């Protein structure tokens, strides 16, 4: 594959090299307007990702009838390397900043008005720090590859274009709705209906299967990185017939997966730490190396969370996390414990997990003991439990693949209920 040939596997383990800068906007060294590249935007075709040259000789230069307005005065970044902006000003002459819709360790996400395409877009502005810029260029490469192969509409977010503005990599995306986590939070962390879980799970697994077919591992699947396409919802009245405490349901079940900045090749086993804590697979914690199966573990944790309203493993400490896994899923296989790397050896004693002896507090022991077995996940029918048991196998070699999961009876049996889920989501007014 072209992408696999471009990056050698050894480079991926050290995090891939920085891609050459393609577009430079508004450099502070000169007060004169500068010529440059305006990536993928010359002809107004947002699906065209190839570089295209537009010579900007003057701030009022026309590009296909579009008047380029000026950029705001140069400002220094904040102490953490975040881009400093004011609402209503421009981000390059093309985009007008309307509001901030997200922030993370990578940088910020702004909702902007695209003057050329006359539509709202989400622009991810990455911090002006080398490691985040490098990760952003990995994400650009992955998004371009996914865009080239995604002819069937598998649920990956669409990148419109990208550019480099004042030392910040900026990636322009289609505008989407709230994340699954935001929707849960607005619902006071109440569970999703099982048919909605089925439809969301199917789409996430289709995206994962698509990526794995391209030999890519997402590595950071979580409810925050799965967004509904639409922000519209309806409220269902509670048992008393009132809407005040009623549950929200999305009008559309359609979702898209975002955040490909940590994506890696699955052609070999990697050893660095990946995944957000609550969705991290046991082989990652034990230092056994990871590949495609770590994504499936994350999907299992997500589905369990949607069914219960709470994260399956709510912890911030490795030994407690492993103890929770054993409490919910049964003992971790001996061969995995024996192979734990030097960083994880302290969690094992005499061939078993050093629990509860190694617990940091009584509260930690209590938090593990109160966890239910997997069979007690709310809203779970037999098919769902069986699917979760396949996704949450401790041994990654025994974990089902994304393609196998899509053929599971949870998705294939009672297809009428799947139709009900879609009609509930898409036809409510």
UniProtKB/TrEMBL annotation:
Q: Where is this region: Disordered?
A: 1-44
Q: Which residues form the Protein kinase domain?
A: 95-411
Q: Which reaction does it catalyse?
A: L-seryl-[protein] + ATP = O-phospho-L-seryl-[protein] + ADP + H(+); L-tyrosyl-[protein] + ATP = O-phospho-L-tyrosyl-[protein] + ADP + H(+); L-threonyl-[protein] + ATP = O-phospho-L-threonyl-[protein] + ADP + H(+)
Q: Which residue intervals are annotated with compositional bias (Polar residues) in the record?
A: 24-44
- The keyword Cytoplasm belongs to this UniProt entry's keyword annotation: no
Q: What is its EC number?
A: 2.7.12.1
- Pfam families given in the database record: Pkinase (PF00069)
Keyword Transferase in annotation = yes
Q: Quote one Gene Ontology molecular function term.
A: protein serine/threonine kinase activity
Q: What class of enzyme is it?
A: transferase
Q: Where does ATP bind?
A: 131
What Gene Ontology cellular-component terms does the record carry? nucleus
Print the keywords alphabetically.
Answer: ATP-binding, Kinase, Nucleotide-binding, Serine/threonine-protein kinase, Transferase
Residue ranges with Basic and acidic residues bias? 1-14
Q: InterPro entries, from UniProt? A: CLK_kinases, Kinase-like_dom_sf, Prot_kinase_dom, Protein_kinase_ATP_BS, Ser/Thr_kinase_AS
Q: Tell me its family.
A: Belongs to the protein kinase superfamily. CMGC Ser/Thr protein kinase family. Lammer subfamily.
PANTHER family listed in its UniProt record: SERINE/THREONINE-PROTEIN KINASE DOA-RELATED, SERINE_THREONINE-PROTEIN KINASE AFC2-LIKE ISOFORM X1
- How is this protein named in the record? dual-specificity kinase
């Amino acid at each position: 594959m072209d992408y696999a040939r471009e990056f050698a596997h050894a480079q991926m383990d050290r995090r891939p090299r920085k891609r050459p800068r393609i577009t430079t906007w508004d450099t502070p060294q000169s007060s004169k307007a500068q010529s440059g590249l305006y990536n993928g935007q010359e002809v107004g075709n947002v699906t065209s990702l190839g570089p295209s040259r537009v010579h900007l000789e003057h701030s009022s230069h026309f590009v296909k009838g579009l008047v380029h307005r000026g950029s705001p005065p140069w400002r220094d970044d904040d102490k953490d390397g975040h881009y400093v902006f004011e609402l209503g000003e421009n981000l390059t002459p093309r985009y007008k900043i309307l509001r901030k819709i997200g922030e993370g360790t990578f940088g910020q996400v702004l909702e902007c008005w695209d003057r050329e395409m006359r539509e709202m877009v989400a622009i991810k502005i990455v911090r002006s720090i080398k490691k985040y810029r490098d990760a952003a260029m990995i994400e650009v490469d992955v998004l371009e590859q996914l865009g080239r192969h995604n002819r069937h509409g598998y649920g990956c977010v669409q990148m419109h274009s990208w550019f480099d503005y004042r030392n910040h990599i900026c990636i322009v995306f289609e505008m989407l709705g709230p994340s699954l986590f935001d929707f849960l939070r607005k619902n006071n962390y109440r569970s999703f209906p099982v048919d909605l879980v089925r439809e969301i799970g199917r789409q996430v697994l289709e995206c994962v299967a698509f990526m794995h077919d391209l030999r890519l591992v997402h590595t950071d699947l979580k409810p925050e990185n799965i967004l509904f396409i639409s922000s519209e919802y309806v409220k269902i009245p509670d048992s008393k017939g009132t809407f005040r405490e009623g549950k929200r349901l999305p009008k559309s079940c359609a979702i898209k997966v975002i955040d490909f900045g940590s994506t890696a090749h699955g052609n070999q086993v990697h050893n660095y730490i990946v995944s957000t804590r609550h969705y991290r697979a046991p082989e990652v914690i034990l230092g056994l190396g990871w590949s495609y199966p770590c994504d499936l573990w994350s999907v299992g944790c997500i589905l369990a969370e949607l069914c219960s309203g709470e994260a399956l493993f709510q912890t911030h400490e490795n030994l407690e996390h492993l103890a929770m896994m054993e409490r919910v899923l049964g003992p971790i296989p001996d061969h995995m414990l024996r192979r734990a790397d030097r960083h994880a050896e302290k969690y094992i004693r005499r061939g078993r997990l050093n629990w509860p002896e190694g617990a940091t507090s009584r509260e930690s022991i209590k938090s593990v003991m109160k966890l239910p077995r997997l069979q007690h996940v709310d809203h779970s029918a037999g098919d769902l439990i069986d699917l979760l048991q396949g996704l949450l196998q401790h041994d990654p070699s025994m974990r089902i693949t994304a393609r196998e999961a899509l053929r599971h009876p949870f998705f294939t049996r009672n297809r009428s209920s799947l139709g009900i889920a879609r009609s509930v989501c898409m036809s409510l007014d």
